[in-house]
Amino acid sequence: MMEDKKTNWLTMRQVITKTGMKATTISRYKDEFPEYVISRLDGQLLEFDEDSVPVLKFIYELYRSRSEGRRTTERVRDILQKKYGLGQPPIIDIAVVTTTPQQLQEQQLMSMISNHLIEQDNRMTTIEFKTNEILEKNNEILAGQLEIKHAVNERLALMSEIAATRREEKQQGFWSKLFGF
């Protein structure tokens, strides 16, 4: 499919114009058949090898043609192998992007901000952890205080009963104490 020649690269818009296909369809074919639909990123611009245009049209027609029933991706791949061979490994061609001093400063600033936010997040996590420890200790203290309060209330109730019994004993006359009336 590919010869040793200078490759002409087309933008997505140019490929859409030449094929009449939607960008989503082209992207799907590029992802499913990268060995036949040759593309690269030039900075942030997605470009396609000019020789991929007829391949894209062929793939589109294979999916559209219902003469042999619905074609699966595997079936389309088999047909492509018969027509174009094994294809070629995808090209990874990333253009060198030069960074201006201002962009470098912005990147450094963003890195500093990111590091600062991570540091703050770590501090907040530590504070949250210590706060939870303090709350757990407070809950233990409150539980202990409730136990003490319950014990004190039981003793007070017991002391009230004892005091009431003594009052009753004092109010009973000499003869009822003696004879147990």
- The CATH class assignment of the largest domain is Mainly Alpha
DSSP strand tally: 3
For the largest beta-sheet, the strand count, sense and barrel status come to: 3 strands, antiparallel
Radius of gyration: 43 Å
Spatial strand sequence of the major β-sheet: 1-3-2
End-to-end separation:
122 Å
Give the CATH topology of the largest domain: Multidrug-efflux Transporter Regulator, Chain: A, Domain 2
Category by helix and strand content: mainly alpha
Count every helix, treating DSSP H or I runs of 4 or more residues as helices.
6
Unreliable residue stretches = none
Break the fold down into its secondary structure elements and pairings.
Layout: E1 9-11, H1 12-19, H2 23-32, E2 39-42, E3 45-49, H3 52-64, H4 73-84, H5 101-171, H6 174-179
Antiparallel strand pairs: 1-3, 2-3
Search tags:
single chain, 181 residues, mainly alpha, 7% strand, Multidrug-efflux Transporter Regulator, Chain: A, Domain 2, 2 domains, elongated
Describe the structure.
The chain is mainly α. The chain folds into 2 domains: 9-84, Orthogonal Bundle (Multidrug-efflux Transporter Regulator, Chain: A, Domain 2), CATH 1.10.1660; 101-173. It is 66% helix and 7% strand. It is built from 6 helices and 3 strands, in the order βααββαααα. The protein has helices at 12-19, 23-32, 52-64, 73-84, 101-171, 174-179, and strands spanning 9-11, 39-42, 45-49. It has a 3-stranded antiparallel β-sheet with strand order 1-3-2. The longest helix is centred in the C-terminal third of the chain and has 71 residues, at 101-171. The chain is elongated and about 130 Å long. The mean pLDDT is 84.
